[in-house]
Amino acid sequence: ICDTSSLADTDILSVSSLDRSHHWPEVFDIPKFSVDVEYRLHQGNLLYLRDETCLKVTKELKHDILEKIAETMYAFKVYPTKQDFESVAKALVQAHPCLTESGSPSGWDGWKNSLKFKMGNYRTKMRQLGRLDVSINAGKRGKHTTNGDPPNKDIKKPRKGEINYLPEYPEGMDDHNLEGACQILVNEMMKTKPNGSLVKKKMDVTFALRRKEVVQDKPAMSQMVHRWPALFTENQVYCEFTRVVGKNLRDSFFGALDDIAPKLIDLFRKKKGLTSQLLAELLRQTKICSGVTDEDSYSQISVGLLCVDQEHPQHNPSKVVIILEGSVVMDDLTSLPQAFCLLFDLIYALHLDYPKGMKNTFYLFSR
After folding, report:
1. Which residues pair with 330 in a beta bridge?
2. What is the rounded CA–CA span in Å between residue 265 and residue 338?
3. pTM (2 decimals)?
4. What is the average pLDDT across 232-251?
5. Which of 162, 260, 326, 357 is buried deepest, with most CB atoms within 10 A?
6. Is pLDDT of 12 > 50?
7. CA-to-CA dists, residue 112 to 30, 80, 273, angstroms
8. Among positive and negative, which fits the CA dihedral 22, 24, 29, 32?
9. Quick one: average pLDDT of 102-110?
10. How far is CA 68 from the centre of its chain?
């Protein structure tokens, strides 16, 4: 499968179907509240600076503060972590010292707990409004679930680094409009030389529909290749990762690989005993084939890279093939590092699980 559009296109993405464009900040900035709340906090901060008198927070004031912060947090993450809640609570007290809790060792433990409850309530509010990223988990929490499964089973959450897990449809678009755009893509990819600009535009617009399918419906890989052929071109693989994660992996992957590869090789050579045995087992799980053409030989491979050459395919393969669910999804790739980068992108793009035998390897690269 070859790519026909410029690789530079990966740097310019339409945001028509993207909900989020920023990752969780290293330092969380407390948002501005309403005029009344800001005035009361300002007065409280002055008193605290004078004699460390903490503000008596009314129920109404606390609601307004938590509601605004929950809205801001949701703009970054639907399901913040414990560390996220702690960083926000700490930032709130640092920005408004009058909110310090005198009976708390940290001064903000109560705010952290309140934020957790408020965030749950805010997700419920968003679910009632039909937001896809939370409505997909409707009925899976609480004592009684809608389908009889144990509570909290199979909760769908973004993978590490994903900022557009289940975005909303572009404004003014519905299933009918997006299906039409999908069909235009299929027709365009049947041409000898597809229009790269048109492909990119329609892939941007249909991103929300595609994410809904891969996360909610989990179609077979053969169906995805047939329905979204443009997704399996090199340029669009990079673009899709950028849509999901908000970063261009290609720009950083090879630099990071050059940095850590010599260190890993040196480490592997020095290891003995159990660690050496584990590394040997990992190598045995790596399948290298010479001149393979029989599809039955890889039909049982869920995720894999096929290096094809007559001699020493692992060192200098004539081509590398990406296999997903027993199907070749990309072929004629020129190098193993390139193929691994694209495989990593596809795992995010298609919402796939990491290969069981190499989970730690993929976790390492995800960092």
Report:
1. 322
2. 19
3. 0.76
4. 90
5. 162
6. no
7. 14, 12, 46
8. positive
9. 92
10. 25
**Residue type present at position 103:** G
pLDDT of residue 138: 75
Confidence of residue 257 (pLDDT cuts 50, 70, 90): low
State the distance between the two ends of the chain, measured CA to CA, in whole angstroms: 29
Q: What's the pLDDT band for 312 if we cut at 50, 70, 90?
A: low
Distance CA 188, CA 207 (A): 17
For the chain, list the strands marked E by DSSP. Answer: 303-308, 319-324, 327-333
Query: Is residue 28 within 8 Å of residue 91, measured between CB atoms?
Result: yes
Go through the chain and tell me how many residues it has: 367
Q: What angle do CA 359, 360, 362 make, to 5 degrees?
A: 70
Read off the amino acid at residue 158.
P
Alpha-carbon torsion (130, 132, 134, 137), positive or negative = positive
pLDDT for 310: 56
Q: Write out the E strands in 47-116.
A: none
How many Å apart are CA 247 and CA 240, to the nearest integer? 10
